[in-house]
Write a structure and sequence with these properties.
The complex is a heterodimer of chains A (about 210) and B (about 325). Chain A is an all-alpha fold and about 210 residues long. Chain A has one domain. Chain A is about 85% helix and about 0% strand. Chain A is built from ten helices and no strands. The longest helix of chain A is centred in the C-terminal third of the chain and has 37 residues. Chain B is of the alpha+beta class. Chain B has one domain: Oxidoreductase, molybdopterin-binding domain (Sulfite Oxidase, Chain A, domain 2). In chain B, strands 3, 4, 7, 8, 9, 11 and 12 form a seven-stranded mixed β-sheet that branches. Chain B has a five-stranded mixed β-sheet with strand order 2-1-10-5-6. In chain B, helix 2 runs antiparallel to helix 3. The longest helix of chain B has 9 residues. Classes of the chains: A mainly alpha (about 210), B alpha+beta (about 325). At the A-B interface, helix 3, helix 4, helix 5 and helix 9 of A face loops of B.
Chain lengths: ~210, ~325
């Protein structure tokens, strides 16, 4: 498995796979295959894929540790950047197809509607993460500070969920929201447990070193 | 009517005689073409206008049900009719699923025969009507209405039915009757989403009695010259064109006259978002989106700017007097 993941083409393959939803939506939009309300379909699909990529990127570390495949870490940056790509497309679709790039109207809409404000905040918070994804930025910030900054993704996941929850709230239609919430809760729950376990083990190890 | 007012709407003999909007708007271009000698080609397309005018073709899917010409003001609007395919595949009918493609997929299980509608409450003549009796109660008319969904999209649909007031007059409401409540079918055996927590079932909608008496409020049995498809609320539904679509209950089984304002389904689910009146009003936003504009399904493509929503969905001349003196921002 590790060998496969380390294959020089593995990254290109994952890149192409991550681009498939976008390619399909683009093709369907051109061919008028997005149903009766293509604008709504496109905006929602881009939002759905943002949430999915946030789940996927948050799954990398737990999967890597549980399955013992360190090679998985190679893909984390690209997956995170795809989450950002889809959120940009989500915002762009909304601004273009829903608002016709009417900037004053968009600004008013963001300020007036809490669910859009929350979604927009998530986008804003994700921006520095995407902007500091290259190696030089890690060096410039220092690994510790960089890691702290990138912990923002947990907040972004929460805001993204709230945005989705709020959008569905008027219709009391929460099934999908709960699916995403459960996945994100499981992934963050695992991190919490992992963190506690590591901290609990430390003193015992220290004790042993002292004894020997 | 001999004397025409604003409320008469756009009177016309036959819809096929009306010049399509595209050609009308391009009339100057046509004159230019004539001047430059290219008239031959242009006139060929002019001759083709007959083909482009709206001659309503029956989809040929269900039993025919045609309606005669209506004398009601505002009964027929002159806008491009939405494709049957889109009007029957993009629906909100939560008993069959919350996705707009769900009703078309799931509503085949709905049993519409036999069907009866109970009329009860504060009336002199309560009665249970069979569907057959109800259809024959008054002559069927064709009404081409705008349909504006609270979600910000719209369609133009040729309905077949008669004014709800015809039924109301037959059952003779008592003086104490102030509201009329429409209770729709909630059958968990044939409707897979009845029982889901989205709404409090059955789906209930209501009107004030004077709203219900307005001749534009349509008791509807068909669309596009045929009986209603299941996903559009077969076999009998309401269509109130100046209100958001959800006010028009589908698959109605009971009509009740009351003296108190009934709690309606969406109002119970989210009172701050869906008021009792829910008149189409571009100046009162939904808390989560603007109601100032709308997207006409099938016409306003991805890159088209959305069109402006009209007060009372364009039926202001006919219905505004129902709300004289009311603060429509509070009573939304």
């Amino acid at each position: 498995m590790n060998k496969l993941l380390l294959h020089p083409f593995a990254k290109s393959l994952v890149f192409v796979v991550c681009l498939l939803p976008f390619a399909w939506l683009f093709y369907a939009a051109l061919g008028n295959q997005l149903g009766a309300n293509p604008a709504e379909a496109l905006i929602r699909a881009m939002g759905d894929w943002t949430l999915r990529f946030i789940c996927i990127v948050l799954a990398v570390t737990p999967l890597r540790v549980i399955s013992g495949t360190p090679a998985l870490a190679r893909f984390r940056r690209m997956l995170g950047l795809f989450a950002y790509f889809y959120v940009v497309m989500h915002l762009l679709s909304y601004s273009w197809f829903d608002m016709g790039f009417d900037v004053p109207a968009i600004t008013k809409d963001i300020a007036k509607r809490p669910f859009i404000l929350v979604g927009f905040s998530a986008f804003v918070l994700l921006t520095p993460l995407a902007a500091t994804s290259f190696n030089a930025a890690i060096k410039a910030l220092g690994a510790k500070r960089w890691q702290w900054l990138h912990k923002l993704v947990y907040l972004v996941a929460g805001l993204g969920l709230l945005h989705f929850f709020w959008m569905r709230a008027g219709k009391n239609n929460f099934t999908e929201v709960f699916v995403y919430a459960a996945i994100i809760a499981a992934l963050l729950g695992w991190r919490m447990q992992h963190f506690l376990r590591k901290n609990r083990l430390k003193p015992i190890c220290n004790g042993r070193t002292r004894l020997s | 009517m001999l004397i025409k007012t604003n409320a008469s709407g756009f009177d016309h003999p036959v819809s096929s005689e009306i010049t399509p909007q595209g050609i009308y708007q391009g009339r100057r271009e046509l004159i230019k073409l004539m001047a430059t000698g290219a008239a031959g080609a242009a006139l060929a397309s002019w001759a083709g206008r007959e083909a482009m005018a709206q001659t309503l073709q029956k989809p040929g899917k269900l039993a025919a049900l045609s309606g005669g010409k209506s004398a009601v003001a505002g009964a027929v609007i002159m806008e491009k009719i939405t494709d049957y395919k889109e009007a029957t595949s993009y629906n909100n009918f939560y008993e069959f699923g919350t996705d707009k493609s769900d009703p078309a997929k799931n509503a085949h299980t709905l049993v519409t025969k036999p069907w009866s509608v109970v009329v009860e409450g504060l009336v002199k003549q309560p009665k249970t009507y069979t569907l057959e009796d109800l259809i024959k109660l008054s002559p069927q008319e064709e009404r081409i209405y705008r349909l504006r969904c609270v979600e910000g999209w719209s369609m133009v649909i040729p309905w077949v039915g008669y004014s709800l007031s015809e039924l109301i007059k037959k059952v003779e409401p008592l003086g104490s009757a102030k509201y009329i409540e429409f209770i729709t079918l909630a059958d968990p055996k044939t409707m897979p989403f009845v029982g889901s927590s989205v709404l409090d079932w059955p789906y209930v909608e209501a009107l004030r009695l004077d709203e219900a008496m307005h001749p534009l409020a349509l008791l509807t049995f068909g669309m596009y010259g045929e009986v209603l498809p299941n996903q559009n609320g077969a076999p009998v539904r309401l269509v109130v064109p100046w209100k958001y679509g959800f006010k028009s209950g589908k698959s109605i089984v009971k009509i009740r006259f009351t003296d108190k304002e009934p709690r309606t389904a969406w109002n119970k689910a989210a009172a701050q978002e869906y008021g009792f009146y829910s008149n189409v009003n571009p100046t009162v936003d939904h808390p989560r989106w603007s109601q100032a504009t709308e997207r006409r399904i099938g016409e306003d493509g991805l890159f088209a700017k959305k069109r402006k929503t009209l007060m009372f969905n364009g039926y202001e001349a006919q219905v505004a007097q129902l709300y004289a003196g009311m603060d429509l921002k509070k009573l939304f």
